[in-house]
């Protein structure tokens, strides 16, 4: 099922020292895998969206090109309870993870060939996003418990000052820039971050209880935040934070990824969890020049480690 809703948000923004109001139009479309109980849109590249769905018995992956839904199931004949979770896409390459008898395994799928990815010496490997050859995720088990960056050749552990290493969850990647969450060493508070391999920038929606960045493009970061009573989606351009909820539903939305001006994510209502697309148009905040805003920032039990953006499963 697919339905469209267009509405305009008047957004109060606080970019550094001044207060501005911007009118932004988001045109929403519900994404429900045919016959599914719940649908979870996770990654977008061009016209292709990937994610997974629950049919009342098990979870399987999907791809959707705007017209055709295709089921994605990792070919593992040794596991009758195989579940497949696509989480990211870059061009024609899909990544994610599946459950095997020996533990969770990452995968790559190019439309023809499935390739298993396993962090060295770990029992579980979860790939959360991909950009070109670069992938991010989390590995644990058998004395391994850490986030990683993988370029198709070398696995690199993610670690930076001020964070409990085992709490770093990288959820999005664009080029060499990573977004995600971690728990602070001192306060124990969960915060969002942006990391370019050298500098970490904390990302906190103003006044939020927690902030969970999930996707990043050249211009924007998207994710979810909590105001203490409910969760909302957000869009951030390096200067301006924009909050949104799927219209005419219970106040819960989580943006999971963005490509161009198309945001994807999840929302919940009385009938279950649904995917959505939201097309950004209208008057939008200006994109900062390379010396400011976003690039200033860039200068910067299996389920237990799965990012918050997958919640509702």
TrEMBL record:
Keywords attached to this Swiss-Prot or TrEMBL record, sorted alphabetically, are: Signal
| Positions of the Ice-binding protein C-terminal domain | 286-309
Q: Which Pfam families match?
A: PEP-CTERM (PF07589)
Q: Supply the InterPro entries for this chain.
A: Ice-binding_C
| Keyword Flavoprotein belongs to the record | no
Q: Which organism is this entry from?
A: Candidatus Nitrobium versatile
Q: What is this protein called?
A: PEP-CTERM sorting domain-containing protein
Signal peptide stretch: 1-23
């Amino acid at each position: 099922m697919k339905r469209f809703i267009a509405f305009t948000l008047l957004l109060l923004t606080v970019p550094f020292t001044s207060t501005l109001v911007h009118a932004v139009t988001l045109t929403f479309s519900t994404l429900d895998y045919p016959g599914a109980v719940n649908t979870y849109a996770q990654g977008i590249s061009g016209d292709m969206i990937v994610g997974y769905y629950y049919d009342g018995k098990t979870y399987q992956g999907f791809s959707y090109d705007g017209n055709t839904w295709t089921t994605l199931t990792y070919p593992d004949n040794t596991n009758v309870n195989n579940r497949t979770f696509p989480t990211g896409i870059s061009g024609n390459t899909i990544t994610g993870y599946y459950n095997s008898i020996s533990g969770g395994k990452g995968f790559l799928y190019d439309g023809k060939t499935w390739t298993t990815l396993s962090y060295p010496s770990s029992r579980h490997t979860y790939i959360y996003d991909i950009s070109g050859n670069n992938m991010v995720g989390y590995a644990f088990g058998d004395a391994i418990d850490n986030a990683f960056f993988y370029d198709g050749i070398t696995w690199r552990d993610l670690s930076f000052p001020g964070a409990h290493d085992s709490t770093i969850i990288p959820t999005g990647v664009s080029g060499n820039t990573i977004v995600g969450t971690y728990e602070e060493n001192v306060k124990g508070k969960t915060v969002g971050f942006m990391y370019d391999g050298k500098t970490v920038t904390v990302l906190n929606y103003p006044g939020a209880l927690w902030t969970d960045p999930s996707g990043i493009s050249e211009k924007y970061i998207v994710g979810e935040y909590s105001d203490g009573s409910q969760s909302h989606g957000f869009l951030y351009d390096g200067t301006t934070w924009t909050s949104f909820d799927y219209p005419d539903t219970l106040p819960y939305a989580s943006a999971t990824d963005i490509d161009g001006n198309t945001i994807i994510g999840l929302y919940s209502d009385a009938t279950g969890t649904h995917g959505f697309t939201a097309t950004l148009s209208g008057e939008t905040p200006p994109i900062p020049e390379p010396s400011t805003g976003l690039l200033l920032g860039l200068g910067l039990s299996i389920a237990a480690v799965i990012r918050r953006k997958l919640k509702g499963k």
